[in-house]
Amino acid sequence: MTALAISNIVLWVAVLALLLIVLALVRQLGVLHERIAPAGALMLNRGLNVGERVPMMDVEDLEGHARRIGAPRTDGKSTLLVFVSPTCPVCKSLLPIVKSGRKDEQDWLEVILASDGDRDEHRQFAREQDLLGLPYVVSAPLGMTYQVSRLPFAALVDAGGTLRARGLVNSREHLESLFEAQRLGVASLQEYFASHA
Amino acid sequence: MGLDPVIGMLLSASFAILFASAAWHKWRDLRRFDEVFSAYALLPRVPGLRLSWTVPLLETAVALGLLSDISRAYAGGVGVVLLLSYAGAMALNLARGRRDIACGCGGPDERRPIAAWMVWRNLLLALLLSGALWHWSRRALLLTDWGTIVFGIAAAVVVYVCVDRLGQLGRRAKALQGTS
Predict the structure, then answer these.
(1) Is the complex ipTM higher than 0.90?
(2) Within the 162-181 window of chain A, which residues sit less than 8 Å (CB to CB) from chain B?
(3) Which of A25, A143, B69, B175 is 20 to 30 Å from B53 by CA-CA measure?
(4) For every one of its 180 residues, what pLDDT tens digit does chain B have, with 9 covering 90 and above?
(5) Quick check: A33 and B142 CB within 8 A?
(6) pTM for the model
(7) Could you tell me if A83 and A138 are in contact, meaning their C-beta atoms sit under 8 angstroms apart?
(8) Does the beta carbon of A7 lie under 8 angstroms from any beta carbon of chain B?
């Protein structure tokens, strides 16, 4: 075997080793992309379907103002219904996020808190959590219409009264996933990433 | 002056592997490939006639034909036509705005949609394969030549897999930015 042949083989081995390293890096990039993908709000199988018109419902907030949920709005704003409960610890940790999200998205979004049960208990909860500026409705039929079985749950309804996104929200990431789902025109971020995998 | 036999063998063998792998993915689940083939909406549907199986059949024939001196020119010609047809079918569907149909390039479990870069990839592959159909010059092969052929094939396979994965990653990166 000549020196040229040996050097040729050595070079080829080096080229192949480098290529395999590139392949490993490309694979790692794929894994990283999967890991950094944002987590969307968990969609439960039951309840209204995204894209469906929500039924119009007349409810009353804690301050006694009548509100019509699901009716087409003239101001072009979407409505975010956030179902909470005074007995749910995760809801308490989510409330500051909801308040900050409401402030950030106020140009296009109205946030309404919803729950059921004793109104006095909810008033006290609203005082404790500093929710007095936030519309807070107490209505068992509202929760049943949206089939809320676990809390905290949120539903995003557009200005035309169509459900755009819904799901369990435990964090800012989950909450914002509902806004992103509406912006991207998909039912959930999970569906979006599944179709772009 | 003809094409050096080392380059010719390297190209032929690499394309034989490419076509064999493509055919293998399709043979694994012909029903799934039939759906992919129909989704391209290139031919009118004839009940009871499944033309989709001709694709893996031709791919297998090309893969085997490229390995023999006698059949290489014919197999290469069919291979070039196949690659150009894939590029044309993708370009046509992209022009129709049907960007969500599966390309059918991976295994049966893969649902990778068609993209403009795949059209360019297939055109480049067709150009490379047509290069291998050129007249080969004659010379005795040395040990280094065989090293070039064997390692070159391995390198070509890894480069193809890397480019393929990078194409997928680009799409995923766009999805993360919400711009795709």
Answers:
(1) no
(2) 180
(3) B69
(4) 788 999 999 999 999 999 999 999 899 888 888 888 888 888 777 676 777 889 999 999 999 999 999 999 999 999 999 999 999 999 999 998 888 788 877 666 667 788 888 999 999 999 999 988 888 888 898 888 898 999 999 999 999 999 888 888 877 777 776 554
(5) no
(6) 0.65
(7) no
(8) no
Domain boundaries, chain A: 1-36, 57-195
Provide the strand spans (E) within chain A: 57-60, 66-69, 78-83, 109-115, 136-138, 153-157, 163-168
Tokens of A61: 């907030």
Contacts of A8 (CB under 8 A, 6+ apart): B144, B147, B148
A33:B147 CB<8 A: no
- Give the angle A187-A188-A191 at the CA atoms, nearest 5°: 95
Give dist(CA B80, CA B134) in Å, integer. Answer: 13
A4 and B161: CB-CB below 8 Å? no
- Name the closest residue on chain A to residue B148, using Cα atoms: A12
B contact test, residue of A15, A16, A19, A184 with most B CBs within 10 A: A19
Q: Does A4 touch chain B if contact means CB atoms closer than 8 Å?
A: yes
* Contact: A195, B100; criterion CB under 8 Å: yes
